[in-house]
Design goal:
Distance between the termini: 48 Å
Strand order of the largest sheet: 2-5-8-7-6-9-10
Helix content: 10-25%
Structural class: alpha+beta
Length: 456
Amino acid sequence: MKTKLLLILTLTGCFLCGNIFADATGAATISNVTAVNGECVQSTTNNGGVQFWDVQAGGTYDVTLSNVIDCASQGADSSIGVIVQNSVGGNICPLTATQTATGVYTFRVTLSGQCETMPILYCTTGCSTNTGLKAQDAPGGNLGHLRIATFDGSCAVLTNPSCSTSPTPPPKASITACKFYDKNANGTKDAGENYLAGWPFGLCPVDGAPEAQTQITGVSGCVTWTNLTVPGDYTVTEANALESNWFHSPDPLPPPLIVNGSSVIVFPAAGGNETRTFGNYCTSPSGGLTLGFWSNKNGQKILTGNQNPTASTPMLGSVVTVLNSCALVNANGSLHTFTNSYAAFRSWLLGATATNMAYMLSAQLATLKLDLTAPSGFGSVDGNAFDLCSHMTINGLISAACDQLAAPGGNYTIQGDPTRLGEEMLKNCIDAINNNGDIVPTTPCPKSFASPTPCP
């Protein structure tokens, strides 16, 4: 007599599921199950039209999900994450389902100590059961499950045994490491910050883990080691990029769980699951042009839109609008109103000194605004890039400087003025950007890694 696994697509058959399900049922259905190594697979339909799959316990199967229209790209993702859940024997994850057609995905799963009924979650992240949606048995039907059954020699289903007499598997542990691009270098994965594929992680030791000691993140940005022996101490370490402009983000937790790209995880005898999320950011030149550039002939050609300007050639109206969009000031603190006279603009720009820090801040701020918005393709500074000096985006830095100049007393800050120091700090940060200083770009820089990749 053979012990098999019944894939039964009905909610009532799931007496061990408890609270391990995700809260939401998705539109996807389990449409096909194929044995990889010749195991028995039977498919039947009850009177209500609900499909059941009988499969051999402990086998390896290719499972197809159809009508996957509720992931990120409505069925057009190249791959999605999958978790096969179970209250006995542990979840099987992370699994990756590959797209074979629009809304159709196939994944391979090997069953081990799992028992009785198991739901399938899709559109998941790593091994987090708080993500994803539950697959159905049929469109508009019930929740889909895997269920252990007993078969005879001809693969006919006899019965499904009770798991209550099964031996309790020894406790195990799992570790998941995830990598994201930290656009604001704060160590926290914020909205709009994407996971990074292609980043190596190493684990030492790998006692009991079937996975390789070094794994490389896929589209989910995560890797997982399962079946780890407990009790035990494990160290998970991210690889360092060969490019020197990549940096570890600081861990915001007190005390930090991640230090210099490594984390030590201690499991008690009861086992458990731990996840560490590693942030990294890179820097690149801002693309800024200096105050001196905008006051020379090259800058004049851009601001006037004339390749051969004379002293009286007027500035473009769009340039005047940009410069007047913030309360920039003169040496005596009075508001400066820009006209189309390039000569007047140049005189104001080159006349700036730090005697009144507000005047010097105004000159640097005018330069940065031109770097962002100048005509003829010269707006090469990205306002959404992050400035490590001020800990703001460049757009945020411009807004803060404009607000400071417009605040009471912000227009005239000579030596001894209590607001002078804040304006000087803003001026220094803007000056660095105008001199092509490093910023954190909104998209990751190129990266490469040494071989072999690290084990701590």
